[in-house]
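Morning, I've got a small favour to ask if you have a moment. The fold is given in discrete form, as structure tokens running alongside the sequence. I'd be grateful if you could look everything over and explain what you see. No rush at all, and the record is pasted right below.
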Amino acid sequence: MTIKISFLLLWLPIQLLLSQTQSPIRVDLEKALETTGECKLSSIASNVQYVPLEAKPGSFIKNVDRYTVSDDLILVADETVGKVMKFDRKGHFLGDFLTKGKGPKEFLSINGLNINSKGEILVLKNNLTIEIFSKSGELINGFDYYGFSTGRWLSDDKILLVMDYIVSKGSVIVTIDRNGKNPLVCLKTTLDISKIPYRPGFSCGRCAEGYYYFDPFIDTVYTINNKGEASIRCVFLHRKDHVNQKDMLSNANDEFLISGEKYQFLQYYEFKDKIILQGIVQRHNSVVVYDKKTGTGTSRLKTIYFGLINDLDKGPEFFPRITFTNGSAVQLLRQQEDLIHYIDWVFPESGMVKKGSYDIDLYKKLADYGNPVLMIVR
């Protein structure tokens, strides 16, 4: 099946294996942007917990390049320090998992970290090598698979790779088994990256079926199920004359989020019954919270930080970076960007943050721990 959508003057044919004919969610962006509000954390959660990562010699983190969280482990890659560090879910430092170098259990760059239901750790490093480790850190398997930009465990025996447009033209989503064999292209494009000056990042989050995938180049969110089959999960509507799925997928006049519109959405995440979008609206950081049940959305425009206002304890704003089946979600608060930056610059600036919307003492307490803090909401 071929889907044609316009991007500026480019055509982006998308080829995918449709696993179902279920109608996708249709998010009316124009309507959501008309309804403004505060986009509060209480709309998706009722409880906040903070887990500071233990700060002591050997465990200090300067920059969070990648991180992953499971039920009992936290892994943080810091390429500046040259380590992948291991913490338990209480924040206790368990030691270095990988260190900088070219040998075994070493890396030059980290492109992906993920943990499956068995506690096995998937590492994508050096834009070339995939390694699988046991929970205790023993190497189970390793192989080279050139062309990915990141990846996840799709199941305990299958890996989902998000490919790099530049290296592997045509492949967007590929699945392989844990031995690097039986590749399956789930989602494919013929987009010529050389004609696009800037490529924003993508979203790839867990859902009941497997993962959802969103690329800002297209107005469609896809589901990749545990078999490696793709289906259409969500489409973004811009105009009132999109009347059915067929029109949305094949009309030559379909628009892109970054084509002539005054808004561009860069991140797509789902948590409980909400879709949460991060983007730029009229050159300002903005957030949209869309309710899948009611089909309505609320936008928060001109924000300082891409997140939901924390009206639960007036602490840091929140965005559900990693979600769990128990109804919780987490985000790792970075020292400089999410904590000290606000205390030293944002809060003192008049008019940048609504007075009474934050508790500066809570921010100071979190910053004083000396390392990133895992924020958990339920």
User: Anything to note?
Assistant: Helices lie at 29-34, 245-250, 335-346, 360-368. The first strand starts at residue 2 and ends at 3. The CA atoms of residues 273 and 292 lie 6 Å apart.
